[in-house]
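We append the chain.
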Amino acid sequence: MFSQPLEVRRATVDDVPVVADLARRLLGELGGFQTGEATEQEAFCARLLTSDHYTAFLASDAQGVPVGLLTLNEVEALYVAGCLGWIQELYVTPQAACPSRKNGICIFRSHYSGGRPGATPPGGLLNSDN
């Protein structure tokens, strides 16, 4: 298991090449997706990152190498009577993934929860009504 210290931070438009690269790697692993030209994808990524309803988080190792991407789309839903964050993309590099790769969110969860099972991220990361 990946046990190095991680930094998780919100991505900005300066991170577009990194976000787009990790998204392409995700789609490559999933297979069957046409990612288009890198410049077009990066332009679309920049537009998303400047919108009010899309947020990306990057996880980097102690050397600053990106090892994970989590993107959230703000959506409204009746069952929560408000807005929530829908995980749109989640990618963890093979080097940083949990052994089974069934729980790729572990690096993001452990950062925000201090390793406590069931803990929720601060500031309503997953639900904007918190």
Summary: The first strand starts at residue 7 and ends at 10. Residues 7-124 form a domain with the Aminopeptidase fold (CATH 3.40.630.30). Residues 113-130 have pLDDT under 50 and may be disordered.
